[in-house]
Amino acid sequence: MNENENKHGVHSKVLRAGRRTYFFDVRSTKADDYYLTITESKKFTNEDGSFYFKKHKIFLYKEDFKDFEDILSEMTSFIIAERGEVVISDKHDDNFNNETEEKVEVPENSFTDISFEDI
Question: What is the value of pTM for the model shown?
Fold first, then answer.
């Protein structure tokens, strides 16, 4: 295996999910065995309109695959059984602040009342 293959991994898949992107990368160890990295990349916007990404990565090794798969399956099944497959999220609400990920309450009548004569 050459250095370029090890740097870029062996096999990759991408899952785009709104502002989040998940990267699944099979990489090679020095001993030429494989492991999996899962990276979550989330896009944020600065006040000036520029953007940046926050990334979180986990490394998953073969000896943990079975237990990880079992627990992931159990937890996803629990969520679907308890809450169904319909997504319930405040993130689709116009009053949701994506930077703090908290719901922002907008008081009633908080907007300026203008008429076309004022323009």
Answer: 0.62
DSSP 39-78: EEEEEEE-TTS-EEEEEEEEEEEGGGHHHHHHHHHHHHHH
How wide is the angle at C-alpha 98 spanned by C-alphas 53 and 49, nearest 5°?
A: 60
Per-residue pLDDT tens listing for the chain (119 residues):
444 444 557 999 999 998 899 999 999 999 999 999 999 999 888 999 898 899 999 999 999 999 999 999 999 999 999 999 988 876 644 444 444 444 445 455 444 444 445 44
Contacts 24+ apart (CB under 8 A), 64-72: 65/36
Q: Where along the chain do its domains lie? A: 3-106
CATH 3.10.450.700 at 3-106, yes or no: yes
Compute the distance between CA of residue 54 and CA of residue 38 in angstroms, rounded to an integer: 14
